Amino acid sequence: MRSKIDFQPKSLRQRALDYLGKREYSYFELAQKLKPYAEETDENPATEQIAAILDDFKTRGWLSDARFTEMLVHARKTKFGSAKVANELREKGVADDLIANAVAAVKLTELENARGICRKKYKASPTSREDWAKQARFLQSRGFGFDVIKKVLNSTNDEDNL
Could you give the C-alpha distances from 15 to 11, 71, 93, in angstroms and in order? Predict the structure, then answer.
C-alpha cells in the first residue's frame, strides 16, 4: 500500500540556501539560478523577490562575491592564465575591483604555472616553428598572455640545454 506524500515545493529562500550549501556563488550567478523558480506577481515581481533574499544573505555574510572570487581563483590559477580567470569572473557578474585583485593574484605565479602546464602537455620544448605555434596556441587557449607565452617557450630551449 502506497502512502501519500504531501509534496510541498521548496521556497525560493530554501532553494538559495541549498545552492549555497554546496558551493560559493556570486550574487549574479545565484540570481540567475533562482530566476526560473521565482513566482511573478503583480505586487512583487520575481526580480524583487530574488533581490530581497540575496540582499539578506549578503548582510548575513552567507553570500559574498569576494569569497566567491577567492574560491574561483584558487581553483583556476594552476590551470589557467589571468585572462581566462578574469573572463570567467566577468561572466559570473563579479565587480571590476574584485576582478582586478584576482588578476593581480594570478599574475604572481602565472609564469611558473604556464611552464608547468606546458611541460605537462608537451614533454619536449618546441623544435620547429610549427611546434612553437602549436604550444603557443595551447597556452593562449588557457588564457595566458603573449608575453608569458614567449617567456615560457623561448626559455625552455635555454633550460633544456643546461
Answer: 6, 21, 20
**Per-residue pLDDT tens digits for 55-67:** 999 999 999 999 9
Structural domain of residue 74, as residue ranges?
64-108
Q: How many CB atoms lie within 10 A of CB 19?
A: 16
- Which H/E stretch holds residue 162? none
Q: Is residue 78 part of a domain?
A: yes
Whole-number Å distance between alpha carbons of 137 and 155: 17
Which has the closest alpha carbon to 51: 27, 17, 74? 27
- Do residues 18 and 44 both lie within one domain? yes
Set of cell numbers at residue 99: 576582478
117-155, pLDDT tens digit by residue? Answer: 999 999 888 889 999 999 999 999 999 999 999 999 987
Give the amino acid at 67. Answer: R
